[in-house]
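Researcher: Let's do a round of design. I'm pasting the structure tokens now; please hold your answer until I've finished.
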């Protein structure tokens, strides 16, 4: 993989542009917006609402911030005016609206919106007085818009070719014309386009190799490819240009932490670190405006809310003398052997309630598996060291992903040479008040049982189109509560039990033997561990 070098600032210094960076930080199960003045060690927290806030974008003059939020019950666009301390709602439809980008004159916003069963790009006046006006009209999802510095073109990501490509749309063309595929790479997966301030370079992230790598595409004056795209030699995502065009800001994720890095256009081999945090950073945006003390005071926690309670607390029962430290507790779900270790049962209960709140139905109320006894034998080819035996795993009801109207969709990902499955759960209410639309083709496992033998050999097939409707990202929610996905086993294509999209574990950094010793005595484990 491509490594990121955390080195002292190089010459030229990629942070010379000054100003301030705004970004989304996801921690403790919620996303909020933070601002980091260049050169300052700690960011300023802008929002603290219990609902998610994300996709921040500086206005052209640095006095306004557009962002998306669920603070009124569904995804809408908002603009915060810093001098006036005024937060105004821009969009007013129950449908999903997010990912705003400013026109160069600060009068308009382009954004992604899910209406009439399709994700498209729309325009609206930044004060909400005109619009929305639909800009794209393709059956495939169009999303992640970026407004060009010249003001007459908008780049966006689309799946209209079957994979993610970067397109550009001329505002001088009709509704069905003026769309050009800039990347034209069916085998690659491009997203997150960002124009340089002079409009001559488009930078984006590409992640077909299982990790995101940044590319740059030189453009002509009329926003057509001038030369082939080239790699920047940096692993990362969410690129954003510095106001002076000399640097690119991006995010690098490793080990559950996000690094906010800045690379010089003239020296890509170095990437000075601006900020590092536990949790995820996304959506950075850089303004040249230097924050005055008065402006800074107007940016401090505009919601006036205090920190939230933790997502869960594992209240451990008092162990008996001479017994292992944890006990098994019964869980009120429909599952074989519905038990979990006392060390993880509260996190599961909290996750279950969160899923009910987000999806509108009890997805975790029925499971295919939970606890396994010491005597349980593994299926052929699977490890005997099962985390179900440690009371630290559960198995989703996999049939929800099968059938003609599945309630679960699966996105197949290859990470570090292994196959993982991101699980999306369809919400009970489909008006936009729950979940958000999908942005990727999903995997059809049911095709394994069809008439085409090639689908069995490859373990299914990609669906022909992105499924309609609103979904929650269960995999992301589970991770907030410490429950992690696992990779498929190598034989997943032809041996169904090896698919394992349904399996989630909470290891808490423990080795399997240490986790087992929380439940069992040495004598009970002697046979399992093959010790006399």
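Researcher: That's everything. Go ahead.
Model: Designed sequence:
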């Amino acid at each position: 993989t491509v490594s990121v070098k955390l080195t002292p600032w190089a010459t030229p210094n990629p942070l010379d542009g000054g100003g301030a960076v705004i970004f989304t930080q996801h921690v403790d199960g919620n996303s909020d917006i933070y601002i980091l003045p260049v050169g300052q060690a700690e960011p300023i927290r802008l929002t603290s609402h219990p609902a998610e806030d994300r996709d921040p974008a500086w206005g052209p003059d640095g006095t306004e911030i557009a962002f998306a939020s669920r603070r009124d019950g569904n995804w809408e666009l908002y603009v915060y005016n810093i001098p006036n301390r005024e937060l105004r709602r821009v969009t007013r439809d129950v449908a999903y609206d997010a990912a705003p980008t400013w026109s160069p004159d600060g009068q308009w916003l382009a954004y992604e919106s899910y209406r009439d069963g399709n994700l498209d790009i729309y325009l609206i006046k930044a004060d909400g007085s005109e619009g929305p006006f639909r800009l794209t009209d393709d059956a495939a999802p169009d999303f992640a818009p970026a407004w060009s510095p010249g003001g007459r073109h908008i780049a966006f990501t689309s799946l209209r070719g079957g994979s993610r490509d970067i397109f550009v749309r001329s505002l001088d063309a009709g509704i069905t014309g003026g769309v050009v595929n800039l990347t034209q790479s069916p085998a690659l997966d491009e997203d997150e386009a960002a124009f340089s301030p002079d409009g001559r370079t488009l930078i984006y992230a590409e992640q077909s190799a299982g990790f995101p790598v940044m590319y740059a595409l030189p453009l002509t004056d009329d926003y057509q490819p001038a030369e082939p795209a080239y790699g920047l030699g940096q692993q990362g995502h969410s690129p954003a240009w510095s106001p002076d065009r000399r640097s690119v800001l991006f995010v690098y994720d490793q080990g559950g932490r996000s690094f906010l890095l800045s690379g010089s256009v003239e020296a890509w081999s170095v990437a000075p670190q601006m900020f590092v945090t536990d949790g995820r950073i996304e959506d950075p945006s850089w303004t040249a405006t230097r924050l005055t003390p008065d402006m800074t005071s107007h940016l401090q926690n505009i919601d006036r809310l205090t920190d939230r309670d933790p997502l869960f607390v594992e209240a451990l029962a008092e162990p008996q003398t001479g017994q292992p430290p944890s006990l098994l507790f019964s869980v009120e779900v429909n599952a074989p052997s519905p038990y979990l270790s006392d060390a993880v049962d509260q996190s599961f209960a909290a996750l279950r309630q969160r899923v009910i709140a987000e999806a509108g139905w009890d997805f975790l109320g029925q499971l295919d598996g939970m606890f396994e006894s010491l005597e349980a034998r593994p299926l052929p080819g699977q490890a005997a060291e099962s985390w179900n035996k440690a009371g630290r795993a559960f198995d989703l009801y996999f049939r929800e992903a099968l059938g003609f109207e599945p309630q679960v969709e699966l996105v197949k990902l290859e990470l570090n040479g292994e196959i993982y499955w991101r699980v999306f759960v369809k919400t009970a209410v489909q008006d936009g008040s729950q979940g958000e639309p999908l942005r990727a083709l999903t995997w059809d496992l049911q095709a394994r049982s069809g008439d085409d033998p090639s689908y069995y050999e490859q373990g299914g097939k990609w669906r022909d189109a992105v499924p309609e409707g609103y979904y929650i990202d269960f995999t992301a929610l589970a991770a907030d509560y410490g429950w992690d996905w696992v990779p498929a086993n190598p034989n997943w294509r032809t041996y169904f039990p090896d698919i394992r999209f349904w399996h989630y574990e909470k290891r808490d950094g423990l080795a399997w033997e240490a986790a087992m010793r929380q439940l069992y005595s040495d004598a009970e484990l002697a046979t399992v561990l093959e010790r006399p």
